[in-house]
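Morning run. Coffee first, then this:
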Amino acid sequence: MASNPIFSASFLSRNVLSVILGGGAGTRLYPLTKERSKPAVPLGGKYRLVDVPISNCINSGLQRVFVMTQFLSASLHRHISQSYKFDHFSRGFVEILAAEQTPTSSSWYEGTADAVRKNLTHLTSQPFEYLVILSGDQLYRMDYLQMLAHHMETGADLTVATIPVRKESVSGLGIMQMNDACEITRFEEKPKDPELQQSLQLPRDWYERLNIIDDEDLWLASMGIYIFNRQTILELLDNAKTDFGKHIIPDAIKTHKVSSYVFQGYWEDVGTIKAFFEANLDLTSVMPKFNFFDMQSPVFTRPRFLPASKVNGGNIQNSLLSDGCIVQGAQLKDCMLGIRSIVGEGTDLEEVVMMGGDYYESEDSISQAAKQGRPRIGIGANTQIRHAIIDKNARIGKHCRITPDDKPQEMDHALYHIRDGIVIIPKNAVVPDGTVI
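And here it is:
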């Protein structure tokens, strides 16, 4: 699609504006969102969640991007300002639109639609005919120009990206039906009733049209990705309704031409601890569902000047080591090690997502910490960890044992949390030598 003359760089810079919604509190990702906004949560060892939609925009030629946020946005501001810089002669930018008080509004964002409404002054100060609205907590790779071409070819006022999903996902997503012209005729947000779910099922005759090879029952789910015409977004937000999925899209079906763009690649909502953990561990598999090694559509992030990782013996299976790690004769199986991760001699890790550190400690700081009874940043020697997320700058001592075995699925403790049966050691936590969790 990028070779199509209608999608020249000048066309895109004048006519298409992108918005990434990252203003939610991220409660489903707590405690990873205790000290940072949801889009700033580390992903894949060296990236942040927000890098995925921003990279999709850049790879699609969309270089005017606003990121809307309101909770704990300092680290996100820092990451974006240090990561995404366009030259002075282009119109490209990636900017934060944080919630702010104005003479007409003193409240925070009350939903996805409300966030866009409260920033219409900033958005309409930019030239655009098409507004692309994206979520900040999904893992996928998409060429938005293909969706834009579909939007223009169908003459739609609004296009919703959809994806076929199986029954177990239906109750947690917005489910829709479409006619032969790909116009959405029905939209139900997170349907729970079995009879309602059955009535929304994707007809079998659509399988061949969409080149779906699957014997399972399928439904069309909203991906939370939208393209609005300029006038359409102004009309649909001229009210007090707060959410796109609950209010704006169902209402728009009655008054506007709403089209479905069916996407069939890998897509994962990583807005829960379980989904986030499993998506990271999948990256360590031989053939991961999401490929960070695809240089045709790379995922961009902050450039760092870190040394290569060093492995001083041990046994490593199906694991990823990011820049600047030091592994001292440890056993790693199905593990994701973030930047500057330190793992001690004789330590045994299995199914561990370790986010690493923001800095290296000096010998003096390590010595001072030891005098205070605190381990150095990283994981000490002869420690065993299973099925866990270790957030940044955590200090885990020697001879510790951390596992969710024989514990509740959900639990909060001074040293750790458990969500969906996954142990989470919070950012900057200190786990003394010999601790058993």
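The mean pLDDT is 92. Good start to the day.
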